[in-house]
Amino acid sequence: MAQRRIGLWLIGACGSVAGATCLGLSAWARGLIPTTGLVTTLKPFASLDLDPPSAFVVGGHEVRQADLLTPVWELHQRSRVFDRSIIEACRGDLEQWSRHVRRGILYRPNAALRALQDRPDVLLVQHPQEAITAVQQDLHRFQEQEKLDQLIVVNAASTEPPVAEECRSVSLRTVQAALQGEAELPLPASTLYAYAALDGGWPYINLTPSLGASLPALEELAQLRRVPHAGQDLKTGETLLKSVLAPLFARRHLHVLSWVGHNILGNRDGWVLNDPENKASKVRSKDALLSNLLGYKPQSLVSIEYVESLDDWKTAWDHIHFEGFFGTKMTLQFTWQGCDSLLAAPLVLDLVRLVALAQRCGEYGALPYLASFFKSPLATSVHDFSQQFALLEQWAAAHATPCVPSRTAH
C-alpha cells in the first residue's frame, strides 16, 4: 500500500515556530534526532495509524521576504540551537518546501503586524471574500500539484489584537452575509484563513491567541462541511505549569491568595507582543484558566515584556502566595526558561498527525481531546492538564484499530 501524502500548510511559514517545525520534520524523517518532545511517540499512541514524518509535504503563506531556512539560521545564530550538520543535511527538504511558500494576505492589520510585512507582493485585501478566495486558490493548487491525500492548515502567524465582542457570538449566516457585502463585520485575518480552510474541507489548527476558528459561526461551518479543527493558543511554558500546579493547590485545600507571572522574551513574537493591542490577546489567554482550576479567582497579574537580547529563550518568573493551616501564608516561586520555538515545534507535528487521523476517522468540529495542547481549548471546559491528557489517552485507546478512511474534501 502506497504511503499517504499529507500537506502541512503553515500560515506564517517563515516564522521561528514554522522553521523549527520544518527542520524537525525533515530531521526526524532522516533519523537525525531523537523523538524527545513528541507526545505522539509515547507508548499510549503506538497503536494509532499516525502518519510518519516522511508522509508530509510543506507549503504556506508568508508576508516577509524569507524562506524556510531563514528562521532556522536565525535560531542557530542568535539562540544557539540546531547543529549546523543537521541543518545542512536537511537543507534540500527546506529548499524544496520553500518553493511552495506563497504571498501572505493582510486584512485590516494594525501597525505591529503591518510593520512585519516586507514582501512586495503581499495581498492587502479590501474585502474579506477576496482573502478567502485567494487562500482557497493557493490551497487547491498545492493539493493538486502535490497529489495530496489530505491537507492540514496551521496558523503559526503573529498574534492579532483582540476583536470586538460582537464578532465572538455571530452566527454563520451573519458571517456569510458580511462576506457577500450585505453586512459590516470586522473579522480578523486569522478568521478569514480559518473560514477558507474549513469551507474548502481542510482541517485547521490555531496555535495562536488570535480568534481563528474559535467563534460559533466557524464551528457551524466545520459541522456543515464535516471538517475537524483545533485550538486555541499553544500551551508550552508558564501556562502549562499553571495547568499542572493549580490543581495541586485545589486538591490539597491550600488557598491561593495571589499568582503573579512575569514573562520576558526576545524573539519576533515578543516584538509583536510589545504592541499593547497585540499583547492584550496573549494576556487574556494566559490569565484565563486559574479561576476554572481553583474554583475561585485569586488576585492575579500576567505581564509580558520584550527583551531583545533573550532571542528565542523565553523566561517566566511566577510568585504564588498561598494560605495553609492556621491561616499561615506561604510562597512558591519558580522560574521557567525554554527555547520558545523548540517547545512548540514537536507539538505542531503531534497536532497535525492527530488531526489528520481524526479526519480519516470521520470526526469533525472542534476536537476536545486535544485540550492538553492549548491554553484556551475548544469544545471543553477542562483545564486541568492531567484530566486533559486523560481525554487524549482515552481517545487513543478507542482508536487503536485503524479507522476506515473517509472521503476527504478537495
List the helices and strands and how they pair.
Blueprint: E1 6-11, H1 16-29, E2 56-62, H2 69-79, H3 84-98, E3 101-103, E4 105-106, H4 111-116, E5 123-124, H5 128-146, E6 150-155, H6 165-168, H7 172-179, H8 189-199, E7 204-206, H9 216-225, E8 228-231, H10 238-251, E9 255-265, H11 268-273, H12 276-286, H13 290-294, E10 299-306, E11 313-323, E12 329-339, H14 340-360, E13 365-366, H15 385-398
Parallel strand pairs: 1-2, 1-6, 2-3, 4-5, 6-7, 7-8, 8-13, 9-10
Antiparallel strand pairs: 9-11, 11-12
Word description of this protein:
There is one protein chain. The chain is of the alpha/beta class and 410 residues long. It folds into two domains: 6-234 and 342-398, NAD(P)-binding Rossmann-like Domain (Rossmann fold), CATH 3.40.50; 238-339, Dihydrodipicolinate Reductase, domain 2 (2-Layer Sandwich). The chain has 15 helices and 13 strands. Strands 3-2-1-6-7-8-13 form a seven-stranded parallel sheet, sandwiched between helices. β11 (313-323) and β12 (329-339) form a beta hairpin. α1 packs across α3 (84-98), α1 packs across α14 (340-360) and α7 (172-179) crosses α9 (216-225). The protein is globular, with a radius of gyration of 21 Å. The two termini are 21 Å apart. Residues 406-410 have low confidence and may be disordered.
Give the termini distance in whole angstroms.
21 Å
Question: Which residues sit in consecutive blocks of at least 5 with pLDDT less than 50?
Answer: 406-410
In quaternary terms, these chains amount to single chain
Indicate the CATH class of the largest domain.
Alpha Beta
Could you tell me the radius of gyration in angstroms?
21 Å
Task: State the share of residues found in helices, binned by percent.
Answer: 40-55%
Strand content: 15-25%
Question: What is the number of independent domains?
Answer: 2
Strand order of the largest sheet: 3-2-1-6-7-8-13
Structural class: alpha/beta
| CATH fold call of the largest domain | Rossmann fold
How would you state the average pLDDT, rounded? 93
What's the number of helices?
Answer: 15
